[in-house]
Amino acid sequence: EPEVTQTPSHQVTQMGQEVILRCVPISNHLYFYWYRQILGQKVEFLVSFYNNEISEKSEIFDDQFSVERPDGSNFTLKIRSTKLEDSAMYFCASKGTPKRGNQPQHFGDGTRLSIL
Amino acid sequence: AQKITQTQPGMFVQEKEAVTLDCTYDTSDPSYGLFWYKQPSSGEMIFLIYQGSYDQQNATEGRYSLNFQKARKSANLVISASQLGDSAMYFCAMKAPLNRDDKIIFGKGTRLHILP
Description:
The complex is a heterodimer.
Chain A: E1 5-7, E2 10-13, E3 19-24, E4 31-37, E5 44-50, E6 53-57, E7 65-68, E8 75-79, E9 88-95, E10 106-107, E11 111-115
Parallel strand pairs in A: 2-11
Antiparallel strand pairs in A: 1-3, 3-8, 4-5, 4-9, 5-6, 7-8, 9-10, 9-11
Chain B: E1 3-5, E2 10-14, E3 19-21, E4 24-26, E5 33-39, E6 46-52, E7 60-61, E8 64-69, E9 74-79, E10 88-95, E11 105-106, E12 110-115
Parallel strand pairs in B: 2-12
Antiparallel strand pairs in B: 1-4, 3-9, 5-6, 5-10, 7-8, 8-9, 10-11, 10-12
């Protein structure tokens, strides 16, 4: 069964450094998402992306964050200058057909980001 | 405002027993979808089951069923014949309105422990 893949599984970065989290969504999917989960807390929406542009973003997704689909397969989340509070599990998700709202978002296994 | 409430932070259930995980929601949109995801200790998010607000019947997927009570705004997950591998965190989630392809909001989760 096709799946969303995320790399790396664990990223350790010094505070203030830039980090790029990578995702390969399911190949025929059109909608892409990033969520994060701070340890022990609920999953929070960051951003949704469709047709090469952001369709919605949360308050968390400030100017330090950006997303990109540089080619036909990758979907990346960049944090320009990481802060300690960015430490979390970051999930990429994708969804298929546009017309059916009941399509579930399929999640990757997540990237655990640790900021030192 | 949209909200998902899971009131059981943790549950312990004997293997082979049925278990009900509670979820209540709040939305003013008449069209919405409810999801349950499972998060094992390894961290990935696994889609389990979906219920649409206009669906006439309760959703079922193998051992999972969703007890949807629209008037009460509840969408409890029922796992029949629980197995040790069911031990995980379970998240109830909602997407509203259905015709927009944006975020899912999650509850805080219930940690389920299946006892041998």
